[in-house]
Amino acid sequence: MSSENYHEPLELLSDATKERHRAIVSLIEELEAIDWYQQRAEACVDAELRDVLLHHLEEEVEHAMMNIEWLRRNDRLFREKIGIYVGSQGPIVEVEAAEEAAKLGAPAGRRAAAEAAAGDEGDARRPPGEEARPGAVGVGPARRGALGIGSLKGA
């Protein structure tokens, strides 16, 4: 797993960053265990063994939630984003758009929020000068300053 190791020299990292890394790696491990137990339980033909595996799965979910709660308590950004997304109503992908629209005082809705967020600078997801195709979804970071998946590889 690529996240097991630090990506920068330890002496350059704060204690807070090291602790956050430990929490994130632990969360990843718990989520993997949940997936493994779910698959094993679903494939299992012995009812008693299935019950044991499902019990283990529930324990792993508990462990994952403890890691998430630690991150919420100890990381401002996690705390902020959990407050926005967890327990929200409606389509999950529209939660961010509604949040951005509210910050800008724009009408809620994905298109309105995207237009308001783009402002005079255009859509950050499209290269300059490239026109949007009707109904096309942007490629790359959803907003300025966001990192795409794998964008730090090789950095």
From TrEMBL:
Organism for this UniProt entry: Sorangium cellulosum (Polyangium cellulosum)
Gene expressing this chain: ftn
Protein name, UniProt field: Ferritin
Composition-biased stretches (Low complexity): 108-119, 134-146
Keyword field contains Iron: yes
Organism classification: Bacteria, Pseudomonadati, Myxococcota, Polyangia, Polyangiales
Biased composition (Basic and acidic residues): 122-133
E.C. designation(s): 1.16.3.1
Annotated region described as Disordered, given as residue ranges: 108-155
Gene Ontology biological process: intracellular iron ion homeostasis
UniProt entry keywords in alphabetical sequence: Encapsulin nanocompartment, Iron, Iron storage, Metal-binding, Oxidoreductase
One GO CC term on file: encapsulin nanocompartment
Location within or outside the cell: Encapsulin nanocompartment
UniProt main location, coarse: other
